[in-house]
Design a protein that fits this description.
Elements (H helix, E strand, L loop, with lengths): L1 H5 L4 E5 L2 E9 L4 E6 L4 E6 L1 H11 L7 H16 L8 E7 L2 E10 L2 E11 L2 H42 L16 H16 L1
Antiparallel strand pairs: 1-2, 2-3, 3-4, 4-7, 5-6, 6-7
Helix pairs in contact: 2-3
């Protein structure tokens, strides 16, 4: 599940007044959930034994196999991550001193069904693997792309200037553009980044 979780995209979700990014992976007999408010990161990985014990604890009137419970949890949480929550299912979250509790209320076979995803602070290695490294890789890729586009724009400006010096003119004046100013562009870009971070 851990390796499969790496391939899952982050989704933006809101539970009550709180907004998070989250990703989850469900197997036949367990699940892994990663959730963050961009200040903290919480994590839970539950195997068959943990799912079975919690199901008995929270749903005493309900008799269901571990695989059925995991399948139901997947059918309840995955639509939320896809932006399509089910009207008959409610989610709420509670920040605890030692983690985050994500509570689910729904139905299974006509009976009330409750579940608590009991997330603990994620280990530093997990945060690096799922957040820091992908963000750093994307940042470096975007920096490289900006450098390539800047170089291409400067080459295009040189090409246009050469056409002008050869006597070429625009047939449609509305297509005229100002020469690209690399320094001004970078200053404006950094100003936007700083304002977005604040």
């Amino acid at each position: 599940l851990e390796s499969t979780l790496l391939t899952q995209p982050w989704a933006s979700v809101c539970f009550g007044e709180s907004c998070f990014i989250a990703k989850a992976c469900f197997g036949d007999m367990g699940y892994t959930l990663l959730i963050s408010d961009l200040s903290s990161v919480w994590y839970e990985s539950a195997d068959a034994e943990a799912v079975g014990q919690r199901s008995k604890e929270l749903n005493k009137r309900l008799t269901a196999s571990v695989s059925s419970v995991v399948q139901l949890l997947c059918s309840l949480l995955c639509p939320v991550l896809a932006g399509q929550p089910h009207a008959a299912t409610s989610f709420s979250c509670q920040r605890l001193a030692d983690g985050l509790s994500l509570r689910v209320r729904s139905e299974l076979s006509g009976l009330p069904f409750s579940w608590d995803f009991r997330c603990r602070p994620a280990p530093v290695a997990t945060v690096c693997r799922h957040l820091v490294r992908p963000l750093m890789r994307m940042s470096l890729a975007l920096q490289h792309q900006v450098q390539e586009l800047t170089s291409l724009l400067l080459q295009k400006d040189a090409e246009i200037e050469d056409y002008k010096e050869s006597g070429a003119t625009l047939s449609r004046d509305r297509l005229r553009t100002e020469p690209f100013q690399e320094e001004t562009f970078l200053q404006n870009f950094m100003a936007e980044v700083r304002s977005g971070a604040s």
